[in-house]
Specification:
This protein has about 250 residues and is mainly alpha-helical. It is built from eight helices and no strands. Helix 2 runs antiparallel to helix 3 and helix 4 (about 115-135) packs parallel to helix 6. The radius of gyration is 17 Å and the shape is globular.
Length: about 250
């Protein structure tokens, strides 16, 4: 199997977790505390992956400057895109809609919000998938820790967001169409991460990895942690640490 195909398949595997979460979130009435728990665990997993697999790898490949500049650039790009989308109705795209103030708007309430939600899901998912393809550049084997971290974190993301979409009055065709498209985009992003970035120098590859890390870190702080800690039970911090340690353990096995 060629490495390009591997990149696409691993990207699809990670992206398919969004559909798994969407099926649960749309089809079942999941208690808010359960949503908060799985979101906190997913946030912990991603925080560890960003620290040890992405920023750490970028530092080893290119040094401090590419790692730091790339991480900051990724956070700036994500934040700019998020601000633009928030003004078009996608501010609470990963929220379950448990509180009235955090309900996703329906299309009647804000025209174009459905498309903004779709673009928001794309903004959140592309950096995660791209680094899966980039990880293949290091010895021809995908980073299973990165795939596992993205997969684990995508389940609660899809769960929470689809629950919020349902409460906003969006139907099955829209919800599963969005997540199916994002799963497909994850495949393409992983392939592009391998094929496009592979021709660059190690310093540039390090910078690109760091850009993805910065975008993911900004996404965690902006969309995952608020949902995880909204009406959270007292053990939610412990759950986040457990997710962090699971990913840390995977990266050191």
């Amino acid at each position: 199997m060629t490495e390009v195909v591997q990149a696409g398949l691993w990207g699809l595997v990670a992206g398919s977790a969004l559909l798994v979460g969407a099926v649960v979130g749309f089809g079942a009435r999941v208690p808010q505390k359960v949503i908060a728990t799985v979101m906190a665990f997913g946030a912990g997993v991603l925080l560890s992956a960003v620290s040890f697999e992405l920023v750490g790898e970028a530092y080893e490949q290119g040094g401090l400057a590419p790692a730091a500049i790339g991480t900051l650039a990724g956070a700036v790009l994500y934040t700019a895109g998020n601000v633009w989308l928030a003004r078009r109705g996608a501010r609470h795209r990963k929220r379950s809609g448990h509180h009235e103030s955090q309900l996703q708007p329906s299309e009647e309430q804000q025209n174009g919000s459905g498309l903004a939600l779709a673009f928001g899901a794309l903004l959140d998912g592309v950096p995660e998938s791209a680094v899966i393809g980039v990880s293949l550049l290091d010895g021809g084997a995908v980073s299973l820790v990165t795939v596992a971290a993205v997969f684990i974190s995508n389940v609660p993301e899809g769960l929470s967001s689809s629950a919020g979409m349902k409460k906003a009055g969006r139907g099955k065709a829209y919800v599963f169409g969005v997540w199916g498209a994002i799963a497909a985009a994850s495949t393409v992003s992983a392939v592009l991460g391998y094929t496009v970035v592979g021709g660059f120098s190690p310093a540039v590859i390090a910078g690109v990895t760091a850009v993805a890390a910065g975008a993911i870190l900004a996404m965690i702080a902006d969309t995952m942690i608020p949902e995880a800690f909204q009406d959270a039970h007292l053990a939610i911090g412990l759950v986040t640490v457990c997710g962090f340690l699971v990913s840390f353990a995977l990266s050191h096995t």
